[in-house]
Design a protein that fits this description.
36% of the residues lie in helices and 13% in strands. The chain is α/β, with parallel strands linked by helices. The structure holds iron/sulfur cluster (SF4) (2 copies).
Amino acid sequence: MKKSDVLKAWGRILQGRKPSLSIEITRECPLRCPGCYAYGDEHLGGGTTLRGLSDYRGQALIDGVIDVVDRHKPLHLSIVGGDPLVRYRELETLVPQLLARGVHVQIVTSAFRAIPADWARLPHLTIAVSIDGLREEHDVRRAPATYDRILKNIAGQSVTIHCTVTGQMMKRPGYLRDFLAFWTPRPEIRKVWFSLFTPQVGDDLPEILTPAERAEAISQMMALRREFSKLDMAESLIRQFATPPRSPEECVFAKTTEVVSADLTTPVTPCQFGGTPDCSSCGCIASMGLAAVADHKLGGVLPVGALLKASVWAGGWRSELGAAPPPPPKLKVLH
Ligand code: SF4
Ligand code: SF4
C-alpha cells in the first residue's frame, strides 16, 4: 500500500466513512467448494443464508451497486459473490462507471468463464482469481473452474492469483513452491497472493492448519518471496500471520471495510467471512496487510494502529451528529 493511499484512507476514516467496501453482487455460483464461507449457515448471522437472499440482475443490479457506492464513497471496492462473473454482462457496464468515480475495483472470481477482453486494459482494476492449490486438488475442489478452464479464460489478461493455503497443502513438502513454479512463469499472471485458511469458531476441518503448519507456511513464504518476484507479499505482511488480531475489535481490516450482501442491504459482519470467524487463526491476506500498516511506527514511536483507532473513534463521533461522543479509545503511546 502506498503512503498516499494510507493518507486518503485516513481522511475517509476521519469523516466517519470506511475506506473499503465489499459487495456480494450475486447469490449464485456454479461451484461448490469445500470450506466456502459465503454459503455457510451462519455467514449472514444465522437468520438467512446467502442463497436465501433476493438478489438483483440487469439494470436493477447496475443501479443498485452504483447507489451503494455513491452512498459509501469507498476508495477500494471488492466485488465478490457467489461468483461475480455470473453477472458478467452487468459488470461490463458497471466496471467502467465505478472506475470513472476514482474507485479502485477488485473482482474476485473463480474464472469459470472468460474474463471480458477489455478488462485487461483498464487501470485500477484488479482481477483476483482464486486457485485452491495444484491441479490435482484444485480440479476436485473447484470444478467446473478447473485448471484447463482457468488457463483458457485468463488468456490475454493480467490477473492476480489468490491461493488459500490449507492444512492438506502443508502436509506435502514443497507444495507452495510447486504452485508458484507452475503459475508465476505465465505472462497472464501479474502477482500471486497467499492467504491461510480461516475457520469459524468451533470448526473442525481438514483445511485448518495446525500451529506447526502455520509456522512452516510463514517460513516458506518468507523464503519463496525472494525466489519468486511475483509473490507480492512484503516481509512485514507475512510476519503478521504469526500474530493475527485477537478479535474483530482489534482487526484494522474489519474496522475499515464495510461488507454488503447480495440484496445490497444486509451487512456481513464482523468481516467478509461473516458468522463467528476464529480471529486467532485468521489467515486473510487483507487483514494481515492492514495489520502490517498498523504496526508501522510513525517517527519510530507512534504506531499507525493507535492513530487509526483514535481516528475511527473520532470519525464515528463525527458521523453521529447530535449524539453524545462515545468514550475515547485507550491509546498507548510508546515513549
Ligand atoms: S467459488 Fe467462491 S463463492 Fe463459489 S463456492 Fe467456491 S468459494 Fe464459494
Ligand atoms: S479479517 Fe480475520 S482478524 Fe479480521 S475480523 Fe475477520 S477473521 Fe477476525
